[in-house]
């Protein structure tokens, strides 16, 4: 009786208040008891009446499967409800791609599965959009596969070419190293001979001077009393002396072994610069080729190198300028103790000073630069630069979508490899023009004509050395000249070879990827224009942000990361109040080398995306094809994709 | 009374730069299955620090951006400060100038001070007509680009004037009725907060509770919104001091307060950030924030382990949302703060008087922060005569003594006081919005007399209907082997909920009861061992009444035997 009463009570209750809750709790458990289970797991759930939690913690009955109550903390018992936070709901999404969802998405009022299976409690109606969405996804995937197919082909070509060119580079290096050895010996010999000649000449000169002195003294005695004439003469003599001392200086410079002289200069360069500068130096030499052959040019060659060094130093100052720039842009009355000085500050200055408590900017030095707008100095620079450079940047910047983009002229001149970089990679015939350029640069040293230039030199030197008679006085002027000329030419050639060796060695030292697929990146730059900035990404060198004529270094080449999917540029220009700038370039398969989406998610930490065939990997292509196969297989019958 | 979403987790940074950044951060929360309710935009979202405007380069489609968030039940907050840029083309400045609404300087001219917007003036918020003019600015028509899911942040409302004396307005600045600023400085920010909150109420035709966070605070600020403790630093000391600051605010009536999680200035080490999330999850106002110059610090950026820890911290907050919301209701009606010093709950225990490193959330939960690096152990004083149950392990500790506890990086110590019942929601969603229909868990910690009590307050979470009695308010009493749900709401309540209690956890039960009977339905429910925490795979198991499925809206009794 008691049972019956309570039963009636229950019925009443259902009728009055609880009816909805009963409906709801029925709706919260899915009608299909196996909802949310991945096909590969179905056996696990269907094989017995008592099912084990996958983590082994306990067992549950078939009735507890998807009963909207979490029994297993790992969610094994609730694949189709939101009861276990650790669970996963499997959307079948027939016609599209199956999708495992966090169980927190089940019956949350938001349609997540395109087949609508995640929302079944009747609160929202999720139409099945899998067919349409799936078609879009399949088309997208097909496009991606097409890109990969073409990309893989391009990549294979590039890998092949890289192998060839690298072998060529290596062969050249070996040959140059051999030549260097021989040439060094010849230069030594010539130098020795030249010094001997100079010794003799010096002797002759001193002898002559002595004679002249004696003659002069005799004349002076004869001409005593004529003051005016005397004065002028003294002046002339002094000048002559001065000339002489200069000669001596030059002479003594020439006395030094040329290699060491060269080395010194290279040392200067290397102190402040990385290998590229050496390459530039090399290029500089190459461009001065014509002059180098003339013996008088030697002094200026050294000058040229030094000038180059100075120029580069200046440039590096110019590059880091933006940081100082901001600070010095608006002069500000100094005050080490800001609080003491506040009274003497103008209203605006005080405002900026206080703002700096939030912005953290050093107003005692930089208050002029502090933007009241709580902006970073970076943005300040942007604004400042905008004011200064707007016009230039408008005229200056060009669209850089094109892979074949030429860089600004200075850069082309300075970078020997640039022509190579500017070649279309797909035009395999000419894309490695860099090599032939070099050949022409060094044509006199590298072409293996018959007899080779080296043999020629060797012969000439032998002839000269034999011909010059050191014991003949006075020295035969034409013989002496030819020794000097030959010495100058040979040492110039040696310098060129050495710098070429150094640039090749530097180049070959780099990590070009497991298949050398990044070999073609060497010496190239990729650009992207975003609003007022042009971003330049030069693998193995550096990355920069250019606005008009001001360049901010985002980083120097560091390394690849994440199995060659990311390029890291580190230690760029320092950020005001922040870290040194850095750039992370994610690589994505694409048919052209293109930089896009440069972004700065954290202050001064930039990220960019580079599409390149170099990362179009065969395995990934297979993976995508497999995915497409699966998607096609999942299609409901009766639909024809085509 | 705050809206429910405002009690959940807020994600802020100076600044999320553009709508793409917003979309990306939003989707990352989903990708990592971390709930959050509000995404904040700091001053850089404006057109040159002109509040109520957008930098259209960065945020070309603000309505669409807010709608996308709202589709996931999320909200957005933008900043609106009192310094008005003196720019004749700026409508707020033009209107305020024309109407003579600005505070005057000693010479009777519009006071001109320097702030983020450069040369700026300040509306005289003491004048009711200025406040109502200001309030109008928040209508969706006037605030172009705003939608009903947008709420407001008032900063710099002390008011901050960068070039003023003591970084504020000169004392001889003139307000309404020739009152000098010196006389009313402390209420300026209060009135500004009030006017903004009124604006949001007006915007929603009086049906939508406002949410306004303010930095300036005065007696009564609790009526207008939340307060945060200002620009702190990513230092362990600032983590430590956040607790006494919040407790003091609570004692002055300002319950809804919190410190910037992670520390505003500087880059927190991952350990500090994790600890801050673990503690901040118990702040009444729970917001992660960061300075412009700091590295990104969203919870997924510090490796899988740390992501896991921060996710757990945030999930604990979401799990406890019903409890927090109930406490906010208590604060709303009685003024008793949500976060309380220990001595407030244990006034007879001297040992609690100086303890400001631990605190109570309501009367049931004690939280001990970890304020040092590489902490391996912590001394925790657990007051009272009754036991305390570790929130995560379920382990019972004796009251009235200091325990030396092992701590790990997985969480800060937190304990449920024996004799209390805490309502939870154990399912996590993208945001609190999707949790509305989810079932409850009751965690009963029995005291030495095998009794416990607790409350649950539920309303629609957003409107003012609760003021007319539209809410569910239950008292759960466990005694004599019976759990009873008693109604505390008025009889005429219009609010109902289909939500049920899916799980009742029993801690400290001395005898081996096997099953439960639900009355009046007269249904049996099983008692078995189940996980204490659903999200924790290695967690302990505890006695659980499985699926009693009683509605929170109903009267019922559950007998265990």
UniProtKB/TrEMBL annotation, chain A:
Residues 480-507 form a coiled coil. InterPro entries: Gtb1-like, Man6P_isomerase_rcpt-bd_dom_sf, MRH_dom, PRKCSH, PRKCSH_N. SUPFAM superfamilies: Mannose 6-phosphate receptor domain. GO terms for biological process: N-glycan processing. Residues 1-28 form the signal peptide. Residues 202-450 are annotated as: Disordered. Residues 408-421 have a biased composition (Acidic residues). Residues 523-618 form the MRH domain. Keywords: Coiled coil, Disulfide bond, Endoplasmic reticulum, Signal. Residues 202-222, 230-258, 270-300, 330-351, 359-392 have a biased composition (Basic and acidic residues). This is Glucosidase 2 subunit beta.
Automatic annotation (TrEMBL), chain B:
GO terms for biological process: carbohydrate metabolic process; N-glycan processing. Keywords: Glycoprotein, Glycosidase, Hydrolase, Signal. Residues 335-422 form the Glycosyl hydrolase family 31 C-terminal domain. InterPro entries: GH, Glyco_hydro_31_AS, Glyco_hydro_31_C, Glyco_hydro_31_TIM, Glyco_hydro_b. Pfam families: Glyco_hydro_31_2nd, Glyco_hydro_31_3rd. The keyword Metal-binding does not apply. Pathway: Glycan metabolism. Signal peptide: none annotated. It comes from the Eukaryota. GO terms for molecular function: alpha-glucosidase activity. Residues 1-327 form the Glycoside hydrolase family 31 TIM barrel domain. Belongs to the glycosyl hydrolase 31 family. PANTHER family: ALPHA-GLUCOSIDASE (PTHR22762), BCDNA.GH04962 (PTHR22762:SF54). This is Probable glucan 1,3-alpha-glucosidase. It comes from Rubus argutus.
């Amino acid at each position: 009786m008691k049972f019956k009463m309570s039963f009636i009570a229950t019925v009443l209750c259902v009728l009055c208040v609880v009816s909805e809750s009963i409906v709801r709790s029925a709706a919260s458990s899915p009608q299909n008891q196996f909802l949310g289970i991945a096909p590969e797991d179905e056996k696990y759930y269907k094989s017995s009446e008592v099912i084990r939690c996958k983590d082994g913690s306990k067992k549950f009955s078939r009735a507890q499967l998807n009963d909207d109550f979490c029994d297993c903390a790992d969610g094994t018992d609730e694949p189709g409800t939101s009861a276990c936070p650790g669970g996963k709901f499997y959307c079948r999404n027939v016609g599209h791609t199956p999708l495992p969802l966090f169980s927190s998405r089940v019956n949350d009022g938001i349609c997540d599965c395109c087949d609508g299976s995640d929302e079944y409690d009747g609160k929202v109606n999720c139409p099945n959009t899998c067919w349409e969405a799936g078609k879009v996804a399949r088309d997208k995937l097909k496009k991606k596969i097409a890109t990969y197919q073409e990309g893989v082909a391009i990549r294979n070509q590039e890998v092949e070419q890289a192998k060839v060119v690298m072998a060529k580079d290596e062969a050249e290096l070996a040959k140059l190293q051999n030549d260097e050895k021989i040439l060094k010996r010849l230069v030594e010999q010539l130098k020795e001979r030249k010094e001997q000649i100079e010794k003799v000449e010096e002797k002759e000169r001193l002898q002559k001077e002595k004679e002249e002195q004696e003659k002069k003294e005799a004349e002076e005695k004869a001409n005593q009393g004529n003051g005016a004439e005397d004065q002028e003469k003294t002046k002339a003599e002094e000048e002559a002396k001065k000339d002489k001392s200069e000669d001596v200086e030059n002479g003594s410079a020439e006395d030094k072994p040329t290699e060491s002289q060269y080395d010194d200069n290279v040392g200067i360069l290397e102190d402040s610069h990385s290998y590229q500068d050496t390459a530039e130096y090399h290029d500089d030499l190459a461009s001065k080729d014509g002059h180098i052959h003339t013996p008088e040019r030697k002094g200026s060659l050294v000058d040229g190198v030094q000038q180059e060094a100075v120029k580069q130093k200046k440039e590096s100052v110019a590059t880091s300028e933006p940081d100082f720039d901001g600070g010095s842009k608006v002069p500000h009355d100094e005050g080490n103790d800001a609080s003491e000085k506040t009274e003497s500050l103008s209203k605006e200055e005080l405002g900026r000073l206080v703002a700096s408590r939030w912005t953290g900017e050093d107003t005692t030095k930089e208050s002029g630069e502090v933007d009241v707008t709580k902006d970073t100095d970076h943005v300040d620079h942007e604004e400042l630069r905008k004011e200064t450079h707007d016009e230039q940047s408008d005229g200056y910047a060009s669209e850089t979508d094109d892979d074949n983009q030429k860089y600004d002229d200075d850069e082309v001149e300075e970078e020997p490899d640039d022509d190579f970089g500017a070649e279309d990679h797909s035009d395999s015939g000419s894309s490695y023009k860099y090599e032939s350029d070099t050949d022409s640069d060094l044509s006199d040293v590298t072409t293996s004509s018959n007899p080779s230039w080296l043999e020629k030199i060797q012969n000439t030197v032998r002839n000269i050395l034999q011909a010059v008679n050191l014991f003949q006085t006075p020295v035969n002027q034409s013989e002496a000249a030819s020794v000097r000329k030959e010495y100058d030419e040979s040492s110039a050639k040696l310098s060129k070879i050495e710098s070429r060796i150094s640039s090749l060695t530097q180049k070959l030292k780099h990590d070009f990827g497991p298949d050398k697929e990044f070999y073609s990146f060497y010496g190239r730059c990729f650009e992207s224009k975003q609003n007022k900035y042009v971003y330049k990404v030069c693998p193995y060198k550096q990355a920069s942000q250019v606005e008009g004529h001001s360049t901010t270094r985002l980083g120097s080449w560091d390394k690849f990361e994440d199995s060659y999917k990311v390029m890291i540029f580190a230690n760029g220009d320092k950020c005001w109040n922040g870290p040194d700038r850095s750039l992370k370039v994610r690589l994505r398969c694409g048919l052209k080398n293109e930089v896009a989406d440069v972004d700065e998610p954290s202050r001064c930490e930039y990220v960019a995306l580079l599409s390149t065939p170099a990362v179009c990997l065969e395995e990934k292509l297979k993976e995508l094809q497999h995915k497409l196969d699966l998607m096609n297989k999942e299609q409901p019958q009766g639909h024809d994709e085509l | 009374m705050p809206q429910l979403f405002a009690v959940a987790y807020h994600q802020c940074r100076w600044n999320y730069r553009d709508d793409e950044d917003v979309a990306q951060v939003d989707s990352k929360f989903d990708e990592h299955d971390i709930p959050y309710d509000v995404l904040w935009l700091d001053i850089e979202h404006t057109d040159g620090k002109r509040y109520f405007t957008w930098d259209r380069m960065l945020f070309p489609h603000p309505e669409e951006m807010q709608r996308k968030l709202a589709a996931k039940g999320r909200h957005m907050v933008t900043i609106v400060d009192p310094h008005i840029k003196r720019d004749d083309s700026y409508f707020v400045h033009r209107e305020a100038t024309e109407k003579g609404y600005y505070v005057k300087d000693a010479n009777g001219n519009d006071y001109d001070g320097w702030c983020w917007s450069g040369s700026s003036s300040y509306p005289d918020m003491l004048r009711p007509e200025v406040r109502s003019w200001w309030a109008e600015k928040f209508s969706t028509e006037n605030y172009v680009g705003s939608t009903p899911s947008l709420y407001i942040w008032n900063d710099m409302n002390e008011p901050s004037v960068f070039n003023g004396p003591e970084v504020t307005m000169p004392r001889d600045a003139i307000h309404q009725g020739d009152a000098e600023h010196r006389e009313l400085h402390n209420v300026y920010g209060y009135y500004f907060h009030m006017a903004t909150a009124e604006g949001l109420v007006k915007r929603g035709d009086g049906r939508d509770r406002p949410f306004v966070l303010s930095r300036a605070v005065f007696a009564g600020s609790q009526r207008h919104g939340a307060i945060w403790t200002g620009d702190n630093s990513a230092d362990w000391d600032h983590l430590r001091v956040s607790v006494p600051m919040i407790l003091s605010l609570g004692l002055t009536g300002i319950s809804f307060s919190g410190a910037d999680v992670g520390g505003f200035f500087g880059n927190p080490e991952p350990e500090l950030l994790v600890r801050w999330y673990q503690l901040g999850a118990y702040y009444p106002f729970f917001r992660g924030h960061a300075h412009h110059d700091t590295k990104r610090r969203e919870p997924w950026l510090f490796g899988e382990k740390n992501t896991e820890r921060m996710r757990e911290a945030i999930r604990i907050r979401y799990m406890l949302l019903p409890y927090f919301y109930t406490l906010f209701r208590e604060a709303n009606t009685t003024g008793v703060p949500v976060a309380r010093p220990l001595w407030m709950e244990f006034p007879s225990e001297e040992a609690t008087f100086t303890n400001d490193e631990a605190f109570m959330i309501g009367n049931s939960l004690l939280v001990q922060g970890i304020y040092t690096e590489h902490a391996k152990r912590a001394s925790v004083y657990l007051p009272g005569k009754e036991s305390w149950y570790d929130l995560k392990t379920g382990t019972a500790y004796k009251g009235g003594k200091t325990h030396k506890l092992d701590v790990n990086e997985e969480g800060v110590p937190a304990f449920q006081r024996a004799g209390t019942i805490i309502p939870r929601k154990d399912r996590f969603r993208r945001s609190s919005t999707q949790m509305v229909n989810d079932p409850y868990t009751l965690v009963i910690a029995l005291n030495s007399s095998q009794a416990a009590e607790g409350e649950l307050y539920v309303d629609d979470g957003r409107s003012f209907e609760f003021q007319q009695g539209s809410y569910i308010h239950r008292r759960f009493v466990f005694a004599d082997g019976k759990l009873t749900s008693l109604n505390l709401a008025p009889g005429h309540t219009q609010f109902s909920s289909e939500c049920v209690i899916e799980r009742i956890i029993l801690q400290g039960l001395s005898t081996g009861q096997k099953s439960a009977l639900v009355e009046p339905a007269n249904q049996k429910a099983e008692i078995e061992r189940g996980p204490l925490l659903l999200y924790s795979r290695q967690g302990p198991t505890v006695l659980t009444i499985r699926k009693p499925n009683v509605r929170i809206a109903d009267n019922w009794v559950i007998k265990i035997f």
